[in-house]
Every structure is written in structure tokens, then in C-alpha cells.
Write a structure and sequence with these properties.
Number of helices: 5
Oligomer: single chain
Distance between the termini: 31 Å
Structural class: alpha+beta
Number of domains: 1
CATH architecture: 2-Layer Sandwich
Shape: globular
Order of helices and strands: HEEEHEHEEEEHH
Number of strands: 8
Strand order of the largest sheet: 3-2-1-4-5-8-7-6
Low-confidence stretches: none
Radius of gyration: 16 Å
Mean pLDDT: 94
CATH topology: archaeoglobus fulgidus dsm 4304 fold
Helix content: 25-40%
Largest sheet: 8 strands, mixed
CATH class: Alpha Beta
CATH superfamily: archaeoglobus fulgidus dsm 4304 superfamily
Length: about 220
């Protein structure tokens, strides 16, 4: 498995920001994939008291959403959790998991993608390094001034910055709180929303990261 734009992880905050600024221009919001048959969801849980972290990956068939494989990795926290620099904490374990498991056709990450102060949240950062389509999905608002979508499942509103659409507020179940979807790399906002909705079978969160989150919590104790 090839890692593109490889860089060190054990750096100080200023160097981490410099690396992000160097990688950010490589991000693409254009659909750059063919058939999607395997979708992976990533889960991350911290045990700060023990300075440990668990990263999980659950791979499902698409669009049937049958579980193909589950894998996890425990590690020490090498880079402290800092808002906006999450990839430097979780990135090494994520790469290790994919080196063991192989790459999916698309990966869904918790947190942020292109909707980030430097346009390079976790999903974008890992998408650039792994050269795969990635999407970010969050349960909590990424923007203070978002517009609520209608209450029906599938309703969404879009969020723009500097006249560019960078994310969507998506109602994945009727009369439930929306989730916040941003493309990471090699995928458009429109396709990101469509895939996330197809991955939401019975729950508010898309099945790949819902299962990955449960697995991470199980192994984080």
C-alpha cells in the first residue's frame, strides 16, 4: 500500500499546521471513483487517563451493508489531542490498520473533512495520504449558522464558505436531529450526501461509523 505525501507525525504544533497547509491544496471535491463495493467506517476512542487510544475499522459491503470485517488497534497517544489537528493523533494507527487490512473503495470518518480552518480535517488528511475517496460525518454542529433541514428523512441544507459549498446538514431519519456531512477527498458534496443516506439503514448515523464507534468503545476500557 502506497502512502502519498508521506510526512512525520511526531512534530510540534507549528510544524503540524505547516504540514496541513502543505497538504491542503491536494484535496479534491470532484468525484474520482468508479464502482463502490466496500465502504469502511472508522471509530476512535481515547482513554486519556491511561494515555491510550483505540482506532477501529469496520468494513461493509455497499450498498447492502453486510459486515465484511472488523479490525482494531490500540496504541499510546503520541500526539496530544488538539482541535483541528486530530489526524496527528489518530493518523498513524489508521494507516497501520489499512496496511494490515487493505484499502476500501471509500472510507467514512468521524469529525471533519474539508470544513476545517485549513480545509484539511481528519477525512481530508487521510484521503490525501491514502489516495481514496473519504467522507466526514459528525453528530454535532460544525457551523454555528447552519439552516435546519425539513423533518423528512433525506432532507438537507447546504453550507457554503467563500461562495463554495463545503458541507451539508442531513436528516437521516424522520424527526431526528440531523448530522453534518462534509467531503474529505476525491468526492463531491452531492455524492457524499447520497452515500451517507444509503448507509443509514435504521439509525441516525451511517452504519459503517456507527458500528466502528461501538467497537471502539468496547475496546477502550
Amino acid at each position: 500500500m502506497e502512502i502519498y505525501h508521506r510526512h512525520p507525525w511526531n512534530v510540534d504544533l507549528d510544524e503540524a499546521i505547516r504540514i496541513q497547509e502543505e497538504l491542503s491544496p491536494h484535496a479534491s471535491l470532484k468525484d474520482d471513483f468508479e464502482k463502490i463495493e466496500k465502504v469502511a467506517g472508522l471509530g476512535i476512542a481515547f482513554s486519556l487517563a491511561k494515555n491510550k487510544m483505540v482506532v477501529t475499522c469496520v468494513e461493509l459491503s455497499y450498498p447492502d451493508l453486510d459486515v465484511i470485517d472488523e479490525i482494531f488497534e490500540k496504541s499510546s497517544i503520541g500526539f496530544p489531542y488538539v482541535s483541528g489537528l486530530f489526524a496527528f493523533s489518530a493518523g498513524p494507527s489508521i494507516i497501520s490498520i489499512f496496511e494490515r487490512r487493505g484499502l476500501p473503495d471509500l472510507a467514512i470518518f468521524p469529525g471533519r473533512g474539508i470544513a476545517h480552518p485549513r480545509r484539511i480535517g481528519l477525512a481530508t488528511h487521510m484521503g490525501i495520504l491514502l489516495d481514496i475517496p473519504t467522507i466526514a460525518c459528525s453528530r454535532t454542529p460544525l457551523w454555528n449558522d447552519f439552516e435546519e433541514p425539513e423533518t423528512a428523512k433525506g432532507s438537507c441544507t447546504f453550507y457554503s464558505k467563500d461562495k463554495e459549498t463545503i458541507g451539508a446538514v442531513v436528516r437521516t431519519r424522520e424527526n431526528t436531529r440531523p448530522i453534518f456531512v462534509t467531503p474529505g477527498h476525491k468526492i463531491s458534496v452531492k455524492s457524499s450526501v447520497e452515500i451517507i443516506l444509503r448507509c443509514c439503514a435504521k439509525h441516525r448515523l451511517p452504519e459503517p461509523i456507527r458500528r466502528a464507534h461501538i467497537l471502539a468503545k468496547r475496546h477502550a476500557g
